Amino acid sequence: MWAIEVRDLTKRYRGNGFAAVDHISFSVESGEIFALLGPNGAGKTTTIKILTTLLKPTSGTAKVAGFDVSKDKDSVRKSIGIVFQEPSLDWRLTGRENLDFHARIYGIGRKEREERIEEVLKLVELEDKADVVVDKYSGGMKRSLELARGFIHSPKVLFLDEPTLGLDTHTRRRIWDYIRELNGKEGVTIVLTTHHMEEADYLCERVGIMDQGKIIALDTPKNLKDLIGSDLVSLEMNTRDYNTDIFKKLDFVTDFRKHDDFVTLKMERGDLRIPAIMEVARREGVEIKSVNLRKPSLEDVFLHFTGRRIRE
Ligand SMILES: Nc1ncnc2c1ncn2[C@@H]1O[C@H](COP(=O)(O)OP(=O)(O)OP(=O)(O)O)[C@@H](O)[C@H]1O
Ligand SMILES: [Mg+2]
């Protein structure tokens, strides 16, 4: 079952010559965590705004939870939750009041509302702060509360536009845990956007890499990285004086760099090759102090397709 089906979607803003979203197509399966990963201005927020019915597409179609975003806006809106890129809490209200206000908009009855508020506060670990005004929350707490608000009405699909933007590494990790738990416990389909390759890599079953309005690659993080193919294996030697030819001669080594007492070998499936490398070193009497295997990252994938880095 598809939670989202996007066909040939295009958006040109009035006054802009170019397409902010340029004929993109993708589908997201029910229960999946899916990311749109890309640099500033790639068109991520524009895509999210169309899928959440806040913006009209110039052409193309999109269905969310089975409903057309242009023809059946109300049904789409009832099926989704949104956490915007820009903060949108009422800072004068407490955490609980913010949640309560939102749940009322969705017509959730008092008893259920109270239960649900406790549930979502617990998931994002804000029970203690529930009755504090949001103005006194830290950045991470505000983001956690927005996340809680986004799914309080048990949406089928939850959209998170840059859920961890501006947060420190520790807080980011906690938000990741909440997102995973939410997806696992409640089975909600999650579509998020991010600049962070680690975020997409860690959280998502599949990632669409966006650049200049287009999806330039879409697959599981693993398949995307396998596309780059080569792993980098660095060996730290006991001495600077060793015969490098023994590694060059290995038929699976596709590239080779020597620097001081380090040698870096490029190869496919380095994880399977390390024993053979160790064996040849042992045979030739070369002592290896440490071995380090580096896998290509999604940043390498972006670089491969665009010639640029995501953050530039
Ligand atoms: N309301 C608007 N009017 C005109 N152009 C816009 C509008 N909103 C966005 N754009 C342009 O559309 C392009 C895509 O913007 P969008 O906000 O979708 O990118 P993004 O991938 O979300 O970027 P970021 O990572 O910075 O949030 C950009 O070139 C932007 O300047
Ligand atoms: Mg954006």
Overview of the molecule:
- The chain has eleven helices and 14 strands.
- The protein is elongated.
- The mean pLDDT is 92.
- It has two domains: 2-220, Rossmann fold, CATH 3.40.50.300; 230-295, 2-Layer Sandwich (Alpha-Beta Plaits).
- A hairpin with a 2-residue loop joins strand 12 and strand 13.
- With 312 residues, the chain is of the alpha/beta class.
- It is 37% helix and 28% strand.
- The protein has helices at 44-51, 73-79, 95-105, 110-123, 139-151, 169-186, 197-203, 221-228, 245-248, 270-284, 298-306; strands at 2-11, 21-29, 33-37, 59-64, 67-68, 80-83, 157-161, 189-194, 206-211, 214-219, 230-237, 255-259, 262-268, 288-294.
- The longest helix has 18 residues, at 169-186.
- The strands form three sheets. It has a six-stranded mixed β-sheet, sandwiched between helices.
- The chain binds adenosine-5'-triphosphate (ATP) and magnesium ion.
- Residues 13, 16, 20, 38, 40-46, 85, 195 line the site of adenosine-5'-triphosphate.
